[in-house]
Write a structure and sequence with these properties.
single chain, 295 residues, alpha/beta, Rossmann fold, 2 domains, seven-stranded parallel beta sheet, two-stranded parallel sheet, 11 helices, globular
Length: 295
């Protein structure tokens, strides 16, 4: 039986990855700072442990004795130091822990559009994390990098967010309305991760994970409204107003709905470049259309 650590295993994507690994009968360790995640703790081969992945002692204790690590930890909002901590320093520390304990296999989920010269802190920090891992390949780290577009599913925080907003908002003024995305189903992402883990030919490769269809953000918001039977008029905002809206949302209480850094990220089309191998080469030959899930 293989022993896998899934960092971020209690999150949206992580729960689906854990379910896929559980079906194979592989033992999975899921660290979390919060109380055990009910969505995964009831699975027979899942061991949820209380640990802080940003603590070196905890991280080393988690990695030791396993065959592979899957890193799904990421944030969408934050300042430069937060992105540096999560997207750059954590992958670096994961690689160091893996090498210290002779755990050579790592699957790292990055982001479509990751670029050291990218327009946003998010995209630049994602690229810095990738580079940190690639630098360890000469030391024997067998890493596969996955770059998904926006990931959707019935329990996601993306389509569901816009669905909830349209239940009470009479209209939807929308920043970044013309930004392009190529959404990928969470189950397809989970299968791609598991297939990459089992296939040695994916080592030291980078894959783009995209669905079959391209949507603008406006179209995705419209899909969310149709799905919940609360369709609203979506009003694209000009850039100046979009910046004001993002700044206001950034400072509202609770998790931000949008930030200026999000707008900066959306300047780069979140679609496949065609220059890297894609999800079909990870065994997902027919990626699931978004409309087959939400319409």
């Amino acid at each position: 039986m293989k022993k896998i650590v899934v960092l971020g295993g209690s999150g949206f994507v992580g729960r689906h990855v854990c379910e896929a690994l559980n079906k194979l009968g592989w033992h999975v360790t899921v660290p979390t700072r919060r109380p055990p995640a009910r969505a995964v703790q009831t699975l027979p081969f899942i061991d949820v442990v209380k640990a802080a992945v940003h603590n070196d002692a905890d991280l080393n204790a988690i990695v030791k004795g396993h065959d592979a690590v899957i890193n799904l930890v990421a944030i969408l909002h934050g300042d430069a130091s937060a992105f540096e901590k999560v997207h750059h320093q954590l992958p670096l520390r994961i690689a160091q822990a893996c090498m210290a304990h002779q755990v050579h296999r790592l699957i790292h989920v990055s982001a479509l559009g990751a670029d050291l010269q990218g327009p946003s802190m998010y995209l630049r920090s994602k690229a810095q994390g990738e580079k940190a891992l690639q630098d360890f390949s000469a030391q024997g780290l067998q890493c596969t990098l996955l770059r998904p577009s926006v990931i959707f599913g019935l329990d996601d925080a993306f389509i569901n967010l816009f669905a909830k907003l349209q239940k009470w908002a009479p209209v939807m003024p929308l920043a970044g309305a013309h930004a392009q995305f190529q959404p990928i189903w969470v189950q397809d992402v989970a299968h791609a991760i598991v297939n990459a883990l089992q296939n040695p030919s994916t080592i030291n490769q980078t894959y783009e994970l995209c669905g079959p269809d391209i949507f603008t953000l406006k179209q995705l918001v419209e899909v969310a409204g149709i799905w919940t039977q609360h369709p609203r008029w979506v009003i694209p905002l000009p850039d100046a107003l979009a910046r004001i809206q993002a700044q206001v949302m950034q400072w509202l209480p609770g998790p931000p709905l949008m930030s200026q850094d999000n707008l900066d990220s959306m300047r780069v089309p979140n679609i496949a470049s065609g220059q890297l191998p894609n999800i079909t080469q990870l065994g997902v030959t027919h990626p699931t259309p978004l409309t087959s899930i939400f319409i």
